[in-house]
Design goal:
about 220 residues; disordered C terminus; about 30% helix; eight-stranded mixed sheet; alpha+beta; 6 helices
């Protein structure tokens, strides 16, 4: 039975190339995850705040590496796009950098041009605008480079920090999904934010830095 509407984003649009690195306004970079990032992922998921909102922990470096491999594979399967948020250390030998967090597009529905944003930041990176700048940069890439039409961002109504990130990143609050997610302390209502193409163009531009000479890493 044929569809009457063609796919908004054709299958293969992502997997036909390498996952790009994205510059972020200021001194940040979003790059694909590497297996050597496993110790930072293990440390991140020992943080009580990350465990509270993301409902997982990593018990070993091997488990963290397995997650990273899943994040890498998601690009080729076109089911998700996952970046490490890093701050390059200028002048440091061997391209040393500080890992600050993670941002991803998940629940990709290319046929209708929709996806969901998710992220976390390490404790030392909080309060510096890392999350909203990174979300804005990813939104700009998703709309301008890939052709997504709608991005959603959901968080517990108790997570006020994520509500601020969504607002700063140009995601309008559309409503509340009652008992939308089961957390360790019970069911939480979830705020649903969204951006559609054309929303918050100024925010997206502010989130992006200058393109690097080589966007692939």
């Amino acid at each position: 039975m044929p569809y009457l509407v063609p796919p908004h984003i054709p299958s293969g649009r992502l997997a036909e190339g390498a996952q790009p690195a994205l510059p972020v306004a200021g001194d940040l970079l979003l790059r694909p995850w590497e297996r050597t990032d496993a110790p930072a992922v293990l440390a991140a998921f020992s943080d009580p705040a990350i465990q509270r909102w993301h409902l997982r922990r990593a018990d070993s470096g091997d488990e963290a590496r397995d997650w990273i491999e899943q994040w890498q594979d998601a690009w080729h399967a076109e089911t998700g796009v996952h970046w490490a948020v890093v701050r390059p250390r200028n002048g440091a030998p061997d391209g040393a950098e500080e890992l600050l967090g993670r941002i991803s597009l998940r629940s990709l529905m290319l046929g209708i041009g929709q996806a969901e944003c998710a992220y976390w930041t390490l404790p030392a990176a909080r309060g510096q605008g890392v999350a909203p700048r990174s979300v804005a940069a990813v939104a700009g890439w998703a709309f301008d480079e890939v052709g997504f039409e709608r991005l959603e961002l959901a968080h517990s109504v108790m997570n006020e920090a994520s509500c601020r990130v969504a607002t700063k990143s140009g995601f309008a609050l559309e409503g509340t999904r009652r008992r939308g997610h089961l957390h360790a302390d019970g069911w939480h209502d979830m705020h649903i934010h969204a951006r559609i193409r054309g929303d918050g163009a100024g925010v997206a531009a502010a989130g992006r830095g200058a393109r690097p000479d080589s966007p692939q890493r």
